[in-house]
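Deliverable D5.2: sample structural annotation.
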Amino acid sequence: MTAIWYAGGRLDRAVRLRREPERLHAALTTPRTQIVPLWRDRCLVAADTVVRLGGVDSAWLPATVGDPVFLGIDGDRPLFAVDLSGVPEAEALRATGAERTVDLRRLVQHLDPAEAAVLAYARGLCYWHRHQRYCGTCGARTRSVEGGAARECAGCRQQLFPRINPAVIMLVEAPGTPARCLLARHAGADDDAFALLAGFVEVGESLEDAVRREAAEEAGIVVDQVRYVASQPWPFPAGLMVGFVARARGEATRVDGEELVETRWFSRADLRARRAARGRLGRPDSIDRLLLQTWLDAEQD
């Protein structure tokens, strides 16, 4: 089965430990502890390896860095993340012994899937903390609590939790035979760059409703049967991708001209030819690859 990147992994999030400040502080300074540093959502890399630092000696931390965020227990190692975004990149590199900063999505194919899941989790949490320093209700400053799993407002005492933005991504099948699926070209994409339909879930909408609405809005197509396949964390910065297969009632399409500029029905033979020519189908780290491959494997034309 095609892997779903950023999902799974071996990390124990150790919820109880988050709520025991003394034990959590002790965990930060054990010889086994490791700390994942990030800089403006980018990994710090040395010799083609993502940097992890020991927790015993925190002298490397710049004075402006906020509280480390507890990620969980990796085997027998407490694991934390720290956001170095408040200092210049050169200082972050010098403090951690890194050679450069790299976006996680450019590294992912060279990582163990469990490591990719940890780094995505760390990236999402650090981004959220950096953008939730003030309460949206009363405007007072917030502070990290429960090891970074939440923030608390200093004014109204409201607890704030990391935001997740769900989105649906769908493989739309044509009715009848031969079997075909719908791909679309987005505005600004290359002439032959086709992808699955996708979009964010709106307030008061089920996931299945979002699939039907996005198909109608973007491609002018009505779908009825909607079947869940799998989901994927997508912390870029705070998404959750939920994958579906949907069955269209008809084949006529009408693009919106804003997000999409072209749609095309592809047979399984067409997709296999594209995969042979390009070496892959879909983004290397995205759930669209799973949806396409699952559809290809479902039946031979």
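Annotation notes: The first helix runs from residue 15 to 18. The chain has three domains: 15-131, 132-162, 165-298.
The annotation will be released with the project's public dataset once the embargo ends.
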